[in-house]
Every structure is written in structure tokens, then in C-alpha cells.
Amino acid sequence: MGDDTAAGGWRAGDGAEGDAVLPVVVRTEGGDEYGGIAVAVLEGLLRRIGAAGDEFLVVERVAGESDEWYAQTRRDGVDTEYQVEFRDGSADRHYVAWMDAADEVLAFFVGWARDTGDWRGHHAWERLKL
């Protein structure tokens, strides 16, 4: 597992930060929706995905951006890596990276949700051709 503090300055188990609310809406494959989600709740959702019918999460910032700005993750089984994507305004700015652990994905989502600017540089992002 890498240094999870790199994206957003938070690491699983850091206490009060888990209570912090992120300015995002999270949607699950099962149709559940969480607005203004606590970091700890997002962590729980990430750790459970991978089972049939519960393979992905879509995260959108609440700050009024269009549907062309979002991040998501997918996992094809509970013992597999996470496919993480973000779309940055259009189909030609849609990127993908692979992450090994829920903590790593959570750190990405926290940094992305807060738009800290440092979340991009910590992974091998490739343009995803749709």
C-alpha cells in the first residue's frame, strides 16, 4: 500500500477526519445515493464493492459542475484491484488508473472531492478511449 496521505492529506484510521463531510454525491450500483457523505461512510462503501450487484461507485462534486465532471471506481471481485476513472469535462479528458487498496482509492476520492490539485500526480493515469 502506498502513502495514502498524498491525495487530500488523509489516511484511513486518522480519527476525526473520517467524520469530515465531502461536498459530493455518491451513487452505488444498487441505486443508493449519498449526498454530503462523511469520509468514513465513503470508506465503508469502497471496502464492500466487488460483490455481484455492488461493483461500482460514481462520485460527483456538488459544486454545480456539469455531468461531464465525475469520478468513479469499479471492482470485479472482492479480491481484485480497483479500476478508478475520472472525467474532466469531456470524453477526450476521461482517464483511468488501477489501484490495489481501498485506502488508496479513498485518498484519491478525498483529494478529488476537495479539488486539492495533488490527487492527479500520484497514479499512472491513462486516457480512456470511449
Summary keywords:
130 residues, 18% helix, globular, alpha+beta, single chain
Strand order of the largest sheet: 2-1-3-4-5-6-7
Distance between the termini: 30 Å
Low-confidence stretches: 1-16
Using DSSP, what is the number of strands?
7
- Our Rg estimate from Cα atoms comes to 13 Å
Which strand-content bin applies to the residues? 25-35%
Helix % is 10-25%
* Count of helical regions: 2
**Biggest sheet overview:** 7 strands, antiparallel
What is the succession of H and E elements?
EEHEEEEHE
Would you tell me the overall average pLDDT?
84
Q: How would you characterize the overall build of this protein?
A:
Helix content is 18%, strand content 27%. It has 130 residues and is of the alpha+beta class. Strand 3 (56-61) and strand 4 form a beta hairpin.
Set down the secondary structure blueprint:
Blueprint: E1 24-28, E2 33-35, H1 39-48, E3 56-61, E4 69-74, E5 82-88, E6 94-99, H2 102-114, E7 126-127
Summed up, what is this model?
With 130 residues, the protein is α+β, with helices and mostly antiparallel strands. The protein contains two helices and seven strands.
